[in-house]
Amino acid sequence: MGIFHCLYSYLLASSMFFIAVSATDLYSEALLSLKSEIIDEYDSLSDWSLPSGVIPSGKISVCSWSGVTCDTNSTTVVALDLSAKSLGGAISGEQFRVFTKLVDLNLSYNSFSGQLRLGIFNLINLRSLDISRNNFSGQFPSGISSLRNLVVLDAFSNSFSGSLPADISELEKLKTLNFAGSYFKGPIPPEYGSFKSLEFLHLAGNFLSGNIPPELGKLKTVTHMEIGYNSYQGGIPWHLGNMSELQYLDIAGANLSGSIPKELSNLTKLESLFLFRNRLTGDIPWEFSRISSLTSLDLSDNLITGSIPESFSELKNLKLLSLMYNDMSGTVPERIAELPSLETLLIWSNSFYGTLPQSLGRNSKLKWVDVSTNNFMGAIPPDICAKGELYKLILFSNNFSGGLSPSLPSCSSLVRLRLEDNSFSGEIPLKFSHLPDITYVDLSRNNFSGGIPTDLSQAIKLQYFNISDNQELGGTIPSKTWTLPILQNFSASSCGISGNLPPFQGCDSFIVIELTMNRLSGEVPVSISNCHSLNNIALANNNLSGHIPDELASLPALTSIDLSHNSFTGPIPTKFSHSSSLQLLNVSFNDISGSIPPENLFRTMGRSAFTGNPKLCGAPLQSCSGSMALFGSKGTGKLIWAVLLSVGVVIFTALSILAVLYLRRGSKGQWKMVAYSGLPQFTANDVLRSFSSAESMDAVPSVPSSVCKAVLPTGITVSVKRIEWEAKRMKNMLEFINRIGNARHKNLTRLLGVCYNKHLAYLLYDYLPNGSLADERIGIRKDWGTKYRIVIGIARGLCFLHHDCSPAIPHGDLRSSNIVFDETMEPHLAEFGIKYLLELNKDSFSTKASKSETGEFSGSVEEELYMDIYSFGEILLEILSNRRWTNAGASIQNKPMEVLFTELLKENEIGSNSSIQAEIKLVLEVALLCTRSTRTQRPSMEEALKLLSGLKPQRK
């Protein structure tokens, strides 16, 4: 018996050991199997490997692996957290059957894809399942009702499609349900009104449709519900007023119609109500005053009528009141100013009238007030900045009058002040030395007097300043104005300003200087050469005199110069001929003499740019003769030199033509050359000789629009684009090429010239060797400053094509590979107009082409402009997301703005820097506007650029 007893004990111990080892193998085997399916680019799971030592009996080896949590005895895995490890791939889910005791599974913030597998639903003890911020796709599988213990399901920001799963409503313990930010479609299941314990419901940013089910009103435990950014039919069910515990309700951007149910006033615990961007009509229910806990009310961008209810004065906790962009009218109730918590009042673009409550700002810490584009009159409330926290005051396009509020001159918190288009008068009392954070000031179109404040130069953060159209302002330009370190726009036209232009010390940041229709005198200081970023200078209708400084012609970014109606003398500086950016030079009605430079650039400006100068000649004015020679009337020697030079040019051109004829005799016709303005001249022969005998021009790959690089004998490196055409198309195509060649902007690749015969054309562009936006070596992943500069550069280039070229030039193929960089990493748009040019070579396009010659938009051109804007929006998304959102314009339209914004802050590793956060949000907003599915709802490029630059249009 003793022997049998010993044998039995041995077998029992062996079996227990075997079971322990088997258990160990099951967990490690399952996790290693999972690891084999995962794409782990950064080796985040490097410690997932079997140990070399002996595992203590009854223990499991995986408890020390990253993301794995075991019970206190280290015998069972109870939690698996793989969040934010940059993991990807598709998961089969087969491994999860081993983890019978798993309570928490977190796969969030990764790039997992494919369908969500049913194996996860074997985790019957699971309490929390977080698969948010991945790319799971397809139908959400049925069977989740088997997870009876589930409390949290977070599937936010994936790519699920099909219907919402109805069986999830059977989970009686579920408290959090987040299906936001996918592509679910169809109606919200009425079963979602039967949850027993649900507290958080988030379905926003999908493709949900149908009516909002009234059954949701039965959710007595829900405190937070977001179901907006979908496209429902009908209105808001009054039954939602029965959700007695609701604190947060967001149904914004959801296509809702009808009136706002007064029953929502029964939500006495509600703190935030967001119903903006719908089609709601009727008055705001006065019963809302019963929601005493309300802190944020946003009903903006609807069709709401009526006035602000007087009863709103009872909302003592209200911080945000946004009613902008509706059809409301009436006056603002005086007692609104008594709300002690009010911080933000946004009621712009309505038809309100009367005066603002004169105690506004006295009782609360106002931060942002925007009442623009209404019919208000009277004075600014005197205490509007009494609490010292006001940072945005926007009152433009009303009938305000009188002087500025006494609390404004020293409102040190002020960042943005827009008072344009009113009837304010008196001196400008602003003390810029007391406004350390002011960035934007627009006081234009008023009746101010007393001159520009002399301490303007102390506003060191100022970026935009516009005082134009204050006819009685008078005074002079403060002497240190140009020293402001980041000021970009200075506009003071039609202000009666006198005196001289102060020296341009500093001035490096200035982009626009507008001083037309004043009484300025003296010369333009040669220190204008310090304004390296200057794009537009307008000094017309003054009393300026002297020569036009050569330094003005040397500014690298200058596109528009208006010096008309002054007393300038002397010739047009020849340096203007070499400007690569200049589009307009208006010197009309001065005393300019000599000859207009012969480049095509000046011919395209038209007679109006040069008329009113009796001593000036040359195209587009009358031809020069006699003393009106190329160099004016400064002596016979110069005249003789000019004649000799002209003869030399003629001889050289003739020899070049003969050489080309000799070299290319018997080819496809006589080669001709057009070189565009402001660039070193070269000939067709130069281009032909730039190819070796083994690789002649005709040997360039014969694919239409192919590109190669060439070095001309002059030493210039160019990109050469080969285009075939038919002889009968040549005229129309060449005219369009000339339009491309005359399009000069710092953010466009320059077309240097075109070499052509009856069958072929070679377009010669600047060669930019620093890669394109599609090039992985462009290091912008974490540098937001560089990204923002690229965004603005692209916008400026495209805006120029659409709005400054007449007729407009559609880009036609705007994508990241067609955005190239120069040596300073400034972006340039390449390939613009090429798609349209190739269309001109087709028979089907002949009618459209003839229309475009008249300067009118054909349907085709207009469609291309809209497509450009859409492509621009997609490029913004690509830049914002570090190329993760490629071709994503349509797919993210219905995702909540806050969801996308949060993702981008993480993607760009942005911390608490509020100014950068604001820029990212602004770029995202513009991207979403540009990629709207309805083309007429997209902004123009001019509007998009204003938005990106902070110069928002009237509707903001």
TrEMBL record:
Entry's localization field: Membrane
Pfam families: LRR_1, LRR_8, LRRNT_2, PK_Tyr_Ser-Thr
InterPro entries: Kinase-like_dom_sf, Leu-rich_rpt, Leu-rich_rpt_typical-subtyp, LRR_dom_sf, LRR_N_plant-typ, PRK1-6/SRF4-like, Prot_kinase_dom, Ser-Thr/Tyr_kinase_cat_dom
Protein name per its UniProtKB record: Tyrosine-protein kinase
Protein kinase domain location: 657-951
GO-annotated cellular components: membrane
Entry-linked SUPFAM superfamilies: L domain-like, Protein kinase-like (PK-like)
Lineage: Eukaryota, Viridiplantae, Streptophyta, Embryophyta, Tracheophyta
Presence of the UniProt keyword Disulfide bond in the record: no
Main location per the UniProt record: membrane
Family note: Belongs to the RLP family.
SMART domains with a match to the protein in the record: LRR_TYP
Bilayer-spanning residue ranges: 7-27, 639-663
Any one GO BP annotation for this protein: post-embryonic development
Superkingdom: Eukaryota
Keywords (A to Z) from UniProt: Glycoprotein, Kinase, Leucine-rich repeat, Membrane, Repeat, Signal, Transferase, Transmembrane, Transmembrane helix
Molecular functions (GO terms): ATP binding; protein kinase activity
Membrane-topology annotation of the record: Single-pass type I membrane protein
